[in-house]
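Final report, closing paragraph on structural work. Over the funding period we assembled a curated collection of sequence-structure pairs, and we close with a single example.
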Amino acid sequence: MLTLQELQERMGRLSEWALEDKFIVKEVHFESFKESMEYVNKVAEIAEKMHHHPEIMIMGNIVRLSLTTHKEHELTNKDFDVAEEIDKIKLNQ
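Its predicted structure, as stored:
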């Protein structure tokens, strides 16, 4: 279990993620559905490599990612590690 201080410190490293209950979430807007799918495919590569998968909602040109550790029923370092890797994705916008 992460302490409040650890949560704050880890959130401070992320770009445009929000804390919602026991999830960290990010919503990314694109010019087109095709760009949304390219982004989702890059997220999928990270998730597979790290063996930790976000919930992904695709709404046309908007992608919403949610991370939590379901097995633990709370946020863990795994969630933040994946989010940090996702933040490294270069977008061609």
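The first helix runs from residue 4 to 12. The beta strands are 18-20, 23-29, 55-59, 62-67. We thank the funder for supporting this effort.
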